[in-house]
Amino acid sequence: MMIVDLPRKHRAFTLIELLVVIAIISLLIGLLLPAVQKVREAAARMSCGNNLKQLALATIQFHDQQGAFPPARIASRPPEVALPPGTILDLETGQPTWVVRILPYLEQTALAQQWNLTQTYSQHPEAARTTRVNAFYCPTRRNPQANSTSFGNTGTVTLPCGCILPATPVLPGACTDYAGNHGDLSPGTLGLSTDFYWGGNGTGVIITSRPKPGVPSADWPDRIRIDSITDGTSNTLLIGESHIRQSQLAKLPDDGPAYDGTRFHYSTRVGGLGLPLATGPHDDVEGNSWYAFGSWHPGICQFAFADGRVAALRNTISTITLGQLSHRADGSTIGEY
After folding, report:
1. Max Cα separation, the chain?
2. Closest among 172, 103, 98, 101 to 133, alpha carbons compared
3. 281-334, pLDDT tens digit by residue?
4. What pLDDT score does 182 carry?
5. Domain contains 336
6. Higher pLDDT, 100 or 157
7. pLDDT tens string 240-284
8. What is the pLDDT of residues 91-138, one digit of tens each?
9. 318: containing domain
10. Cβ pair 68, 224 in contact under 8 A
């Protein structure tokens, strides 16, 4: 008996069925994408918090060995007399910032040895100026391997007192996403809103110091110690995420070299009345973005406190509370935040 194989019919997808399948797949991708983004951001936020923890522990170790927290930078004070509008202030030495001083405590001894704390930033070789340290970068904001400034200029800055900071050429250098807490905007010796900027006037923990008299020195007279933080180390900010607008990453004058002490905002920030946290990557902070803390994490900005712990503050925190946390010794009682 002969068996004959009959041809089999192969049923193909119709166009409508194919479109339905594509629509279902697209819907599933649309549902999964936000979840994937949330997981990615959670991982980036944790990595950012770990960076802050490393920086805080390195800064505290510096304190334990040097007897004080590192100075943010070195800059003199203006004369304590009224200055005519248009007066040129050239008071910043340009010596390396606090970021350079903590390098040995971040297992970056080889990089630290390339720096001379008595010389200016511009006197150092390109290899030292442009070396990036991963702990200085928040993964939500950028990849450290792609962020150094190009040669540029700080631009001329006119302060509220009418005084002028002259434009300064800036050699290329590595940036950072973290800044030392310089304090709040409390007036200093001159009673001006810009007093916080100058040596010895900061109310925070990592503050600008005046230079020692005489030849350039690695030492500094305005020393902040643990016992200077009378509000308590658990109530005082040490380091936080610095606000940099998305359009200005690695661009002068907004985002300058972390190692360069010629401008305040390259490695330090202030917060409190008159200067809230930035609310997101595009916030201009009412024209004060250079001086504000802020992150690209949705709704929060992360900080390391002077006791070494890391916590997230809501972007909507009151400026009164932010100022109390920024000030090391205002004697205020801090509520919930």
Report:
1. 120
2. 103
3. 999 998 899 999 999 999 999 999 999 999 999 999 999 999 999 999 999 888
4. 97
5. no
6. 100
7. 999 999 999 888 888 999 999 988 999 999 999 989 999 999 999
8. 788 899 999 999 999 999 999 999 999 999 999 999 999 999 999 999
9. 22-326
10. yes
pLDDT over 70 (residue 213): yes
Q: Are strands 164-165 and 157-158 parallel, antiparallel or unpaired?
A: antiparallel
What confidence tens digit (pLDDT) does each residue in 25-68 have? 777 777 666 656 677 888 899 999 999 999 999 999 999 999 99
Residue 2 CA neighbour count, 13 Å, CB half: 2
Structure tokens of 284? 């201009």
Measured between its terminal Cα atoms, the distance across the chain in Å is: 90
What single-letter DSSP state applies at residue 273? T
Q: How many domains does the chain have?
A: 1
Dihedral in degrees, nearest 10, Cα atoms 224, 132, 261, 213 = 60
Name 85's Cβ contacts closer than 8 Å, sequence gap at least 6.
162, 163
| Residue 16 covered by a domain | no
d(CA 54, CA 66): 18
- Is 335 part of a structural domain of the chain? no
Give 63-129 as a DSSP string: HHHHSSPPPS-BB-PPPSSPPPTT-B---B-----HHHHTGGGGT-HHHHTT--TTS-GGGS-HHHH
Q: Could you tell me if residue 292 is inside a domain?
A: yes
Computed over its alpha carbons, how large is the radius of gyration of the chain? 25
Any idea what DSSP says for residue 305? E
Of the candidates 29, 104, 97, 37, the residue with the CA atom closest to the CA atom of residue 66? 104
Task: State the chain's mean pLDDT as an integer.
Answer: 88
Q: Which residues of 196-217 are buried (b: 16+ CB within 10 A; e: fewer)?
A: bbbbbbbbbbbbbbbbeeeeee
Q: How far apart are CA 263 and CA 173, in angstroms?
A: 13
Q: Cα–Cα distance between 248 and 294 in angstroms, integer?
A: 14
